[in-house]
Amino acid sequence: MSSKLETMTRWLSDQEQRAWRGLMDLHAELWSAVARDLQANSGLSQGDYAILACLSEAPGRRQRVTELAQTIRWERSRLSHQLSRMEKRGLVVRTECPEDARGAFAEITPDGLTVITAAAPEHVASVRRHLFDALTPEQVEALAEISAAVLDGLRQSSSAGMNGST
């Protein structure tokens, strides 16, 4: 059986393997460096920042919890625990949805807005320092195109899977 699987597998070329491993290392090290800076400069975790940024940009500075989970690509239970921690710190509040008794909104508080407004410039500086300062404008454009192409493929695969096709 393994010989049949071996012949059916499209193994990565050396170049593809190098690119894949480089992407994994890039993601881990970049995420870690930006998270360290964020924590040191503002006391926020990446999760705190993601939630506060989304809520600060949302209409009325609030969003349905289910939509927020989709936006930041988190499981609802993970988001619920994070929101609880942030509520205790006065950064967000949850309110019931009048149209849906099972639904809830997450809303940024004035303190949360102050915190994200203060953290954003340093966060952007960290992203610029650790990512964009190392790239040429052409590389930034290539990165944007590559990201869009891969995300488009993932979304098409995901929607095809939801429709029952492969």
From TrEMBL:
Keyword Ligase attached: no
TM stretches of this protein: none
Classification via SUPFAM superfamilies: Winged helix' DNA-binding domain
MF annotations from Gene Ontology: DNA binding; DNA-binding transcription factor activity
Domain HTH marR-type positions: 1-152
UniProt cross-references to Gene3D superfamilies, sorted A to Z: Winged helix-like DNA-binding domain superfamily/Winged helix DNA-binding domain
Pfam families: MarR
Alphabetical UniProt keywords: DNA-binding
Superkingdom as given in the UniProt entry: Bacteria
Protein name according to UniProt: DNA-binding MarR family transcriptional regulator
